Amino acid sequence: MLKQHAGLLIVVCVVAMGLLCLAVTGICSLFSDDKEQKNGKKAEIVKLDGEIEKLTVDSPPLNVKLLTVNEYSRPGTKLDKVNGIVIHYVGNPGTTALQNRSYFESLKDTHKTSASSHFVIGMEGEIVQCIPTVEVAYCSNQRNNDTISIECCHEKKDGKFSEKTYDSLVHLTAFLCCKYDLEIEDIIRHYDITEKECPKYYVTHEDKWVQFKKDVAAYIEENSHVSE
Prior knowledge:
With about 230 residues, the chain is of the alpha/beta class. Helices cover about 45% and strands about 15% of the residues. Strands 3-6-5-7-4-8 form a 6-stranded mixed beta sheet, with helices on both faces. Strand 1 and strand 2 form a beta hairpin. Mean pLDDT is about 85; it is low at about 1-15, about 20-45 and about 45-50.
């Protein structure tokens, strides 16, 4: 009789241990999935009831100075959809964000060319918004209709961004990735569209471009929160 009870007790203990292991595994899986979603570039989490909540990053300070609607720099055309973010450099060493914005604005009068960008980041990290993110900018050739463009100022011909410019670029790009539910691989260079050497420093230094995308991912991981 005692042997029967002992055998039954062993069976119960084995079953209990198995259930405990399953529970622990499930909890670990939940934490792992949550981390993977946050690092995995999609800016959303799934609540227990199945409802999807987006993660967001707070917007950096913006100096909104929209261009006048005109056919040379702000056509007023709606974007088809935001499928990517394109990074550029202005190509004019030493110029400021406002100077580049003024150049875009002047095209409505000079008709020299068609050019513009949604944002221009200055060497002090200031961000000037020239075009609403729901409209087309003339900056990325055949990708104008489905991307947001960011131009960056630089001090020298090598196109290297200052630390303040870089920090603002990381923040702005992270914000836009979350806002439009983009993946890190949706961040591209002008070079990736046309093979133009733009942004120059991040074409000639491929490792720095890889690091930039890692920095954006890290910023999202460290600074994102559930939108209310």
